[in-house]
Amino acid sequence: MQNGKFITLEGIDGAGKSTHLAWLEDYLCSKGVKVVVTREPGGTAVGEQLRALLLDQRHTMHAETEALLMFAARREHLDKIILPAIQRGDWVVSDRFSDASFAYQGCGRGVAWEKLVLLEQWVQEDFYPDLTVYIDVPVMLGRERVNSVKAADRFESETDAFFDRVRTGYLERVRQFPQRMQILDGSLPLDEVRAALAGVMEHFWLNQALHEK
Ligand SMILES: Nc1ncnc2c1ncn2[C@@H]1O[C@H](COP(=O)(O)OP(=O)(O)OP(=O)(O)O)[C@@H](O)[C@H]1O
Ligand SMILES: Cc1cn([C@H]2C[C@H](O)[C@@H](COP(=O)(O)O)O2)c(=O)[nH]c1=O
């Protein structure tokens, strides 16, 4: 059996990840692959508990505690959901993965990049997404969209300066991983972002087919 694939969506809060993830699931199902949709932090019983803790406005924690909890949730996610699904030949689509830790905990909170690299190696070894779609939006637009949908959580209540740093962190990851990471302009109208995502997916799909021949 062919191994499955791992695709992640990234972006600051309100970039449009959840919206495009739903489309992506339909797209992959139409190609005949079995899709597992998941999210970080979360995706497992333990991970969802950690998510509740991490997003709860009432908690304050050291930035490194936050980073460690994100990677703890990820370890569980890999073990219980992501790796078993890929081994079955399913495709896993996750709303966020480790690029978020570099953007939010690294650039946003100031956790040393080298410490995050060590955590990433420890938890993931050589495992990375096959494709990451980073949806880029200006900070103000992301905030407006989040505010129109729900009450802000612990991250969404952060300052514009925090989100500017997070965005810079994502762009640094794109610079480091240009093959794996594709940028979409999430400030465009929804149908235009979707068309761009469809283009990225068709290209990825054809490439996979060529490699598997
Ligand atoms: N390109 C777009 N144009 C207009 N509205 C959009 C666009 N993309 C997303 N939205 C809207 O913005 C809101 C937030 O989108 P969505 O929940 O998908 O973002 P998200 O990145 O998943 O946010 P979060 O990280 O906070 O969960 C939704 O109401 C969605 O319909
Ligand atoms: C995986 C991951 C996530 N975060 C932050 C980013 C978001 O504000 C929340 C998750 O909520 P959403 O539903 O995706 O908006 O968690 C983080 O700071 N570090 C991480 O590694």
Automatic annotation (TrEMBL):
> What CDD domains is this protein classified in?
TMPK
Q: Where is the signal peptide?
A: none
Q: What does this protein do?
A: Phosphorylation of dTMP to form dTDP in both de novo and salvage pathways of dTTP synthesis.
Whether Kinase counts among this entry's keywords is yes
UniProt cross-references to InterPro entries, sorted A to Z:
P-loop_NTPase, Thymidylate_kin-like_dom, Thymidylate_kinase
BP GO terms, sorted: dTDP biosynthetic process; dTTP biosynthetic process; dUDP biosynthetic process
What EC numbers are recorded for this enzyme? Answer: 2.7.4.9
> What's this protein's name?
Thymidylate kinase
Which residues of the sequence carry a binding annotation for ATP?
A: G11, I12, D13, G14, A15, G16, K17, S18
Give the species this sequence originates from.
Answer: Nitrosomonas halophila
Q: Per its UniProt entry, which superkingdom is the organism in?
A: Bacteria
Q: Which reaction does it catalyse?
A: dTMP + ATP = dTDP + ADP
Q: Name one GO molecular function term.
A: ATP binding
**Sorted alphabetically, which keywords does the UniProt record give?**
ATP-binding, Kinase, Nucleotide biosynthesis, Nucleotide-binding, Transferase
Family in the record = Belongs to the thymidylate kinase family.
A GO CC annotation recorded here is:
cytosol
Ranges for domain Thymidylate kinase-like come to: 9-195
